[in-house]
Amino acid sequence: MGPFTLSVMVNDSAISLPDACSKRKQNLLLKNSFASVSMGDEKPFDFLRTLFEGVIAGGTAGVVVETALYPIDTIKTRLQAARGGEKLILKGLYSGLAGNLAGVLPASALFVGVYEPIKQKLLRIFPENLSALSHLTAGAIGGIAASLIRVPTEVIKQRMQTGQFTSASSAVRFIASKEGFKGFYAGYGSFLLRDLPFDAIQFCIYEQIRIGYMLAARRNLNDPENAIIGAFAGALTGAITTPLDVIKTRLMVQGSANQYKGIADCVQTIIKEEGPRAFLKGIGPRVLWIGIGGSIFFGVLESTKRFLAERRPIVSQHTYSDRSKDK
Questions:
Q1: Regarding predicted confidence, which is higher, 10 or 224?
Q2: Max Cα separation, the chain?
């Protein structure tokens, strides 16, 4: 099946409202769709406003979902880090949450803040039949930007989740003194190997299904519908990328022991010592965590975006035309 065509033109709209509705409501409906559709020539691209709204929406959604699902993430991490017949410890499931939120907030804000304006720009550049490529590309670029914050946060979080440290501050001090700056970016390559495909695929699946459904339903979607689509996109992407997540976890939690020399050595060692099935360790909690997380994240994200969009100043098309003439 080819990708959905996601373009909505104002003059020949695929989303039609009853004649009794005003033109202003039609414009508001399209505007509330934010950057998920191509707006044609409706209004100029406002990079700074899109960046600001993306930062606010992304930060809000990231904090909510991380707080709600942190215990499941902890169980998943401990399952993946366990070697051989080690027992799973169920104590301290919120260990490291406070320090992790300090990284999740700016990382989520940065990701969505980069993703949204790039997505809007690419949707205006690429042909309509390549809309999926816009979402894939924007997701990957957003992931690269956010990784600068995500990776140190992930390293500290997973070291605490596996019981190596009792506080974020002690983890930071130890890593800095024993492993140096590069210790905060342990497993960076495997992190990108997991997160770039994950971000690109998850957001592409979510955007394509959401906008395709919106065009078919001929209306904007409500929060439960956005949440359901987010859950499906998250769960599917989480299952696909589980082997990459196992490799990333092993490299990040090894610390100064250096059990693995790199990604290739990690893969070979896991296959030799534990067999291929080890690459699916934690897939249950991961799919559950990311599925529920996708539901919460995208539900909160779209709600926040809509809240901000409804409070944008309404500027008529004539005003934009006048500004263009002045230039």
A1: 224
A2: 73
